[in-house]
Every structure is written in structure tokens, then in C-alpha cells.
Amino acid sequence: MATISLIDLMKSYGDIPAVKGVNLDVADGELIVLVGPSGCGKSTLLRMVAGLETVTSGSIEIGGRNVVKAEPAERDIAMVFQNYALYPHMTVRGNLEYGLKNRGTPREEINRRVREAADILEIGALLDRKPRQLSGGQRQRVAMGRAIVREPAAFLFDEPLSNLDAKLRVQMRVEIRKLQRRLKTTSLYVTHDQLEAMTLADRLVVMNSGLVEQIGTPTEVYDRPATLFVAGFIGSPPMNLIPVSSLSGNEVSAGLPSGTDIVGIRPDAFVLEQPAEPSLALEASVELLEPIGGESHLHVRLNSSSQSIVLSVPGRPEIAEASDIVVHARLADLHPFSAQTGRRTDNP
Predict the structure, then answer these.
(1) What angle do CA 200, 202, 204 make, to 5 degrees?
(2) Topology of 4-228 in CATH?
(3) Which of 240, 246, 249 is nearest to 309 (CA)?
């Protein structure tokens, strides 16, 4: 196991910057998830750590050793890809053994590692099958098994679940988290799926256009997004971002930090009855009611600005579409931002 440090890491393709001066320290045994929209630089960052992309400037340290000029095989990492990258002509056992054989690992040691990985992943019954005889979930288990037998200093996961159906993704997500906690191997995990990111990560790294917008635990990032981008990206449905000008005439706007011109409110922070605590009240008309199991998504249009916002409310409220309502949010649940800087205005 090892720490990973990225120091002023940059990557450009010609004049086009893809990663812009990223700094990140991953603790020994920590699972860090890089999350962001397509094209934000997260996979490029991971491939630089793996040695599959050259570094324009900056350094990468694994276990305190600068590996920028080291070949991928010299970095003591194992990577799990979204397309599994299994050898189709080999059995599962052959795929698991291949890398160990190439490194001259003794047969007895190969057998021990393959046996242990097969037990951990419950693929012992699949060892004599070819990849074409496996389901997508089984192939991904084999891909993870191939990484485990390496006993590397770090695991790198590049959107490993994106090719699986929704139900299997949930199952595999749980298994990856249990596996990482059991092995305690330092891990970098890339995904564009925020639910995957929130449930897997010890800490999140939210990226946008090659920059790190915020680093923190899933709870920290959700409860206190540092920027407008993070506020709008993390959370489903996303945070409602309301111009302060829409709150004119409401005494709430007078109590916001200096420089605030946008207020963020999570959908689940709204309530339909006025709370006992100091709160913001907004008049609105109902556009759509979506029952989502044990809760409902209420789409409303604000009377003050004609802006549409979304509320997450428990149960199935009996509210008619096109009706007029008043929605409330506690002042403690408001997130103040500056449109000019894109950042929170209540940071110390």
C-alpha cells in the first residue's frame, strides 16, 4: 500500500489544456473518487497516474517516489477498465495468472494469489470458462481479480461499471466498496455518476474543465458545495439556484453575506408548511407532480421570476397541477453564492 501525491499536475494537448495544475494527496488505504462531467479531465488525470499519458508538467509520487518518468509496469499499480480488457482466448484462470507469469512469480505463489482472489470475488466456479461465457458482472469481477492478484500499491478504476445495467451497477458498487475496505488498498476511482461517487468515496474530487472545484467527504461536498458548479452538479435533483433579485421585497435578502447574488436551495430543503424556524417563503404555481416511490418531485414556477424549481417532498401530496402554493425553506438551508466569482460568499 502507498500514498499518492499529485503536485501541480498539468496536461495539454498542443495548446489545449486538459488538466490544469491539480494538487491532491491520497492517504494510504483511502478511496478517492474523481467525479465530473465528460471532458472535465478526470480520466486523463487517472491515465497520467497510470503512466498511460505523458505529463506536461508537475509530478506524481506513489509511496513517496516520483514516477513521472517511470513506465506503467514500474509504478506498482493495477488498473481496472470499463471494457474489462480481458484476453478472450484465455480462461478466467489464464487471465488472472497472465501478469504474474510475465513477472516470473513462482507457481506456488501464483496459485495462492489466484485462489485468494477467486475466494474474495466468488468466481472459483468460473476459472475454467472463457470471457465470452461470462455475464458483464462476472467479467468485471474477473477484471478486478486480475488487479487483486497483482497485490499492487494502488488500484486505479476507470469508470468500471459504466457498461453494466442499472441493477448490476448497484450490486457491483457495493462489492467494490466492501472489497476496498477489506483489502485497504489505496484507490483512485473515476466516474461521471454522482450517486456512484457519493456512495463509494472516502473523499470526492469534483472536477470541471480540467480544474478541481472541491475536495471533501461526500457529506461535506453535499452539505456545503464550494462553488456554483458543485452546487449544480452534486445532488439529484440538483440544487435550485435562484437569483437574489427574485427575492426582492423579502427581508431574507437583506441578511445574506455581502456579494451574494444567487441563493442555492436543495430540493429536499423545501417544505410546504411554514417551519417554526426563520424561513424564506416563495409563491409559486405547480407545473408537474412526479411520484417517485416514497417521495414526489414537485416542479413549480416562481411567481416572482417565472423561474422553474424542483422540490422533493415526502409521500404523494394531493396538489393539483396549475394550482398556486407557497413553498418554504429555512434560512439555515440557504447557500449564498456570487455569480461573478462562482464561489460561496459565507466562507471565513
Answers:
(1) 85
(2) Rossmann fold (3.40.50)
(3) 240
Using alpha carbons, select from 170, 164, 165 the residue that is nearest to residue 143. 164
Fold for the domain defined by 237-337 = OB fold (Dihydrolipoamide Acetyltransferase, E2P) (2.40.50)
What is the gyration radius of the CA atoms in the chain, in angstroms? 24
Contacts of 295 (CB under 8 A, 6+ apart): 312, 313, 314, 315
What are 92-111's pLDDT values in tens digits?
999 999 989 988 999 999 99
Sheet bearing 211-216, strands edge to edge? 77-80, 154-158, 186-191, 31-35, 203-208, 211-216
Extents of the domains making up the chain: 4-228, 237-337
For the stretch 110-151, pLDDT in tens is 999 999 999 988 899 999 999 999 988 899 889 889 999 988
